[in-house]
Amino acid sequence: MKLTEQQVNRYSRHIVLPEIGGKGQRKLLESRVLCIGAGGLGSPALLYLAAAGVGTLGIVDSDNVDLSNLQRQIIHSARSVNMAKTESAKSTIQALNPDVNVNIYQTRLTRDNVLDLLSDYDAVLDGSDNFPTRYLMNDACFFARKPLFFGSVFRFEGQASVFMPGQNGPCYRCIYPEMPPADLVPSCQEAGILGAVPGIIGLIQATECLKFLLGIGSSLLGRLLIYDALSMTFNMLTIRQDPNCLLCGKQPTIHQLQQYDQEVCETGQ
Amino acid sequence: MSITVRIPQPLRKLTNGLSEVSSSGQTAKELLGNLDQQYAGLKERLCDETGALRRFVNIYVNDEDIRFLQDLDTPLKDGDLVSIVPAIAGGVEENDPKNITRKIYLTFPHKQIQEPIVWRLAKKFDVITNIRGASVSEEIGLMALELKGGTTDIERAISYLKELGVKVEPIEKDVIE
């Protein structure tokens, strides 16, 4: 595949970087990334992956755009309120970069559809907002051997890491073996988010994903980044593969996708 | 001896909003005990009834997870930096999470039929009550009640009803609408 004159121009600030060059840019254009959710984390991540020229982006989301989303979900606009998030995100991406081929899946992720969805992609960016989806994605990516770019936010705080099945690093279950029950840390009543926080975390996920596709730098594999906007600190913690992990440890007991019960907030109508 | 402890946001209401606090302890376990003295309730959020660390919270000494050191027996020294890091999610909900709705069937025992229980419920707890159906005779009262509010408030309201001897059953399906 040869870059067109227009592409050379569009991606010139990538191409001049010795770590990327024309070769790296072609890699991006041939890459396929699946993004779970087009919300707070997915919005900035998708925009930058699209702008970077990642050739195929898959977007999974079953929700419609709500006015209260626009404080942070910057891929949507006032015009897209009540539209499906997948459709809204697709039209923004196409306006930004026609090089990108967008596949949309307006569906809830379940253990029955997730492996099929993953199979078409090189990497997965988790922009989900709840624990059941996060554990489902963690397990599915482990079974499908897909790298998972993890991010999570809460009020003024964020976490990010990279999970690479088969590569001497942890999975999400190694860090947190169990889902928190809804009534304990952190409780649903405390939810709320400074809009810029998922912007930061989503872009860290996107950056890690681009580095992986390009094969450059050292990733967050084995490290958990903790971002605190109120004190404006970034802390780095070491995370290890847990030999007792039920999924990826020495004697695993999870051999297939589970029933991931919705123990999070029941939302009102 | 002084150990700096980083408090995650979900727990800061117990530390008067502080993101970092100073404490002491020869081991992680001792530190948690001391922290709980300073900020009551902290330990309960981090440890289960057996005293073990909850499985969705981790404690790091400097940048190492204590599960890969000596767990709660991990020794601490002056100047150590301890981070408490719970699993987080959310802040991205589509609906107001305070606004959950629970529909329940109530069966009032004979002695409670004349009492204004639903009124008391709404006065006592931060819940919105909405009676969707009722049938009251001299012997027994039946009511389909909708409760709106935070999860905890609703749970508390339901416990209160049970304490009064009211039988509470969930309405599985939307039988009223």
List keywords for this structure.
heterodimer, A: 269 residues, alpha/beta, Rossmann fold, eight-stranded mixed sheet, 31% helix, globular, B: 177 residues, alpha+beta, Ubiquitin-like (UB roll), Alpha-Beta Plaits, five-stranded mixed sheet, four-stranded antiparallel sheet, 9 strands, 21% helix
Give structural notes.
The complex is a heterodimer of chains A (269) and B (177). Chain A has 269 residues and is an alpha/beta fold. Chain A has a single domain (14-238), classed as 3-Layer(aba) Sandwich (Rossmann fold), CATH 3.40.50.720. Chain A is built from nine helices and eight strands. In chain A, strands 3-2-1-4-5-6-7-8 form an eight-stranded mixed beta sheet, with helices on both faces. In chain A, helix 4 (42-51) runs parallel beside helix 5 (85-96) and helix 4 crosses helix 9 (196-214). The longest helix of chain A has 19 residues, at 196-214. The radius of gyration of chain A is 18 Å and the shape is globular. Chain B is α+β, with helices and mostly antiparallel strands. Chain B has four helices and nine strands, in the order E-E-H-H-E-E-E-E-H-E-E-H-E. Chain B has helices at residues 28-38, 42-46, 117-124, 151-163; strands at residues 3-6, 20-23, 57-61, 64-65, 81-86, 100-108, 127-136, 141-149, 167-170. The N and C termini of chain B lie far apart (63 Å). Mean pLDDT of chain B is 86; it is low at 91-97 and 173-177.
Topology:
The complex is a heterodimer of chains A (269) and B (177).
Chain A (H helix, E strand, L loop, with lengths): L4 H6 L1 H4 L5 H9 L2 E5 L5 H10 L4 E5 L24 H12 L4 E5 L8 H5 L4 E4 L4 H14 L3 E7 L2 E7 L8 H4 L20 H19 L8 E6 L4 E6 L31
Parallel strand pairs in A: 1-2, 1-4, 2-3, 4-5
Antiparallel strand pairs in A: 5-6, 6-7, 7-8
Helix pairs in contact in A: 4-5, 4-9
Chain B lengths: L2 E4 L13 E4 L4 H11 L3 H5 L10 E5 L2 E2 L15 E6 L13 E9 L8 H8 L2 E10 L4 E9 L1 H13 L3 E4 L7
Parallel strand pairs in B: 1-5
Antiparallel strand pairs in B: 1-2, 3-4, 3-5, 6-8, 6-9, 7-8
